[in-house]
Amino acid sequence: MSNLPKVAWIGLGIMGSPMSENLIKAGYSVTGYTLEQDKLDRLSAAGGTAAKSIAEAVENADVVITMVPASPQVEAIAYGPDGILENARSGALLIDMSSITPQTSVDLAKAAKDKGIRVLDAPVSGGEAGAIEAVLSIMVGGEQADFDEAKPLLEALGKTIVLCGPHGSGQTVKAANQLIVAVNIQACAEAVVFLEKSGVDLAAALDVLNGGLAGSTVLTRKKDNFLNRDFKPGFRIDLHHKDMGIVTDAARNVGAALPVGAVVAQLVASLRAQGDGGLDHSALLRSVERLSGAEL
């Protein structure tokens, strides 16, 4: 029998499925629950156990990990008679890896403490590829002792794992991450349209740009999306729209000006309104193309 903690995983989407599978590969016993049967079948095929409910998934878990789209979903799975807090054992560690508002994380930690459950907010960056390759950046908020306990598990999921401060701090850093990523994608998209309209060899141009100061992880990860107009979702515009709402609201609350971020937030919202919300966030290129006269 493994001495590793038993894990319950709630939410098996684009990120959650490969992340849970990496835990299984690392030797963890993983029981999962999600709404889609095909995702539960995938977990079972990878060596995990499919549960029929949240309560069943978490009842014997030492660690509960959640990875769902937004604050309302976190609240839906955490609270209520069928939720995590009512059914997880006292002393369990809840690691929420969703990207939600900092205040939601703070409130969850307070509510969980009353049940004897410890909480870390631990959102991630790196997209689907980072999840598959287990090279995510994981920004954590919570208590040092809980972080130290969780770190070996988190090391099966990512490469850069940092405790950023008290509850909610991980979400605050993730909001800043999403601001930087959105602005970076927008700049790359504008450069792509500019280069193409100028008649430059786009592949060659992106290669040389990525080798200099303009280079970035965003350009490395999204270069082929731009070149091939392949916008299969690794991280959907819908979710980045949600995240831009989080960062602009949080910035307003602390009195931080985000002039460029506010513009990009509106461009993301516009792209979503035009029906592209289900595409990868590299589809910001489509918005620039439309503004530049293309009919898509």
UniProtKB/TrEMBL annotation:
Keyword terms, alphabetized: NAD, Oxidoreductase
GO molecular-function term, one example from the UniProt record: 2-hydroxy-3-oxopropionate reductase activity
EC primary class: oxidoreductase
EC number: 1.1.1.60
Classification via InterPro entries: 6-PGluconate_DH-like_C_sf, 6PGD_dom2, 6PGDH_NADP-bd, HIBADH-like_NADP-bd, HIBADH-related, NAD(P)-bd_dom_sf, Tartro_sem_red
Residue ranges occupied by any 6-phosphogluconate dehydrogenase NADP-binding domain in the UniProt entry: 6-165
Residue ranges occupied by any 3-hydroxyisobutyrate dehydrogenase-like NAD-binding domain in the UniProt entry: 168-286
UniProt keyword annotation of Disulfide bond present: no
Record's keyword annotation contains NAD: yes
Any Pfam family the entry gives: NAD_binding_2
SUPFAM superfamilies: 6-phosphogluconate dehydrogenase C-terminal domain-like, NAD(P)-binding Rossmann-fold domains
Sequence similarity: Belongs to the HIBADH-related family.
Protein name in UniProt: 2-hydroxy-3-oxopropionate reductase
